[in-house]
Write a structure and sequence with these properties.
This protein is 57% helix and 0% strand. The relative contact order is 0.16. It is an all-alpha fold and 94 residues long. It has one domain.
């Protein structure tokens, strides 16, 4: 994937260019970037391209943490509640 496809609006590029940017601001830019990806694009592949292009030249930049966190697969959701949870905790019907 090309860099122009991975960052179509240049949002990540601009994020790295902002001096003194905070982690929260990087997260906001990341969200805007994710929403701007073309349909059918592989976001994980785009993240790999962005990390390999920008991270080596900007050690310690907060955007590095945001982009690499985006590469981590989310954990499977854990169901809470329901009948089984009430019975297991001893809170079933009297």
């Amino acid at each position: 994937m090309e860099l122009t496809v991975a960052d179509p609006k240049g949002l990540i590029r601009e994020g790295y260019a902002i001096e003194g940017i905070s982690l929260g601001e990087c997260r906001s830019i990341f969200l805007d970037w994710a929403l701007s990806l073309a349909g059918g694009s592989d976001p994980r592949e785009a993240l790999r391209v962005l990390v390999s292009h920008y991270a080596p030249g900007a050690p310690g930049h907060p955007m590095n943490a945001v982009l690499t966190a985006g590469l981590v697969a989310p954990q499977s959701p854990v169901r809470r509640g329901g009948r089984a949870a009430r019975i297991a905790s001893g809170q079933g019907k009297p």
